[in-house]
Amino acid sequence: MDDVIREGNSVLREKAEEVALPPSDEDKRQLEEMIEFLRNSQDPETAQEYQLRPGVGLAAPQINLKKRMIAMRTTDHNDELIELAMFNPKIISHSQQSAYLEGGEGCLSVDRDVPGIVPRYARVKLEAYDLDGRRFTKRLRGFLAIVFQHELDHLNGIMFYDRIDEQDPYKIELPPHELVQRSEDEVPLA
Ligand code: SB7
Ligand code: NI
């Protein structure tokens, strides 16, 4: 169940390849399994049984697949559950304003705490292909936008701590920026 590869594995540093569209049955199955993994990791009993850290997102390279596929599962600012399965995602536009998650970011592939501010775009418009191979676009903001950018980075071999300022981990970029908070009652998250 926990097939997540960890830091030190070179696949996490490679650029993942585009998935040929329409997606093959194997690609679809793998992306579905990524969503399933997130559901399991967020289910207290399953997580406990398989010793999973709860995850809100997963990128294919994290399970050793060099493919441009991302799964996300979390709630939006209206507390609505958002599940996204994406082939070949990309940002087609983004805000000038940046944002960062209070308390920094974590990663299922990183078994240690890396403190510091990870600057992200506050809002992004993404384009991707769903499980049926249909193109869609979606606007994300807040926590969702941050998670998406974290996952997209994985497809390009970038780890969240690459974006933390080495000299001054808590350095805040010049305004405008937004501080994104996660409310306490949400599922906790890596
Ligand atoms: C906090 C958590 C995540 C993204 C951004 C901020 C998701 C962590 C789970 N993953 O390692 C997914 O790549
Ligand atoms: Ni990660």
Automatic annotation (TrEMBL):
Could you give a GO molecular-function term held by this entry?
Answer: metal ion binding
Q: Name one Pfam family in it.
A: Pep_deformylase
Q: Which residues bind Fe cation?
A: C107, H150, H154
Cited InterPro entries: Peptide_deformylase, Peptide_deformylase_sf
Q: What is annotated as the active site?
A: E151
Q: Which reaction does it catalyse?
A: N-terminal N-formyl-L-methionyl-[peptide] + H2O = N-terminal L-methionyl-[peptide] + formate
The UniProt entry's GO biological process terms, in alphabetical order, are: translation
Instruction: Copy out the cofactor comment.
Output: Binds 1 Fe(2+) ion.
Which segments does the entry list as coiled coil? none
What is this enzyme's EC?
A: 3.5.1.88
Q: Which domain of life, per UniProt?
A: Bacteria
- List cofactor names only: Fe(2+)
Has UniProt tagged this entry with the keyword Cytoplasm? no
Record's keyword terms, sorted: Hydrolase, Iron, Metal-binding, Protein biosynthesis
Q: Where is the signal peptide?
A: none
The protein's matches in Gene3D superfamilies, at most eight in alphabetical order, are given as: Peptide deformylase (3.90.45.10)
Q: What does this protein do?
A: Removes the formyl group from the N-terminal Met of newly synthesized proteins. Requires at least a dipeptide for an efficient rate of reaction. N-terminal L-methionine is a prerequisite for activity but the enzyme has broad specificity at other positions.
The record's section on PANTHER family has: PEPTIDE DEFORMYLASE, PEPTIDE DEFORMYLASE 2
Q: Which HAMAP family match?
A: Pep_deformylase
Say which family it is in.
Answer: Belongs to the polypeptide deformylase family.
Q: What is this protein called?
A: Peptide deformylase
Higher taxonomy: Bacteria, Bacillati, Bacillota, Bacilli, Bacillales
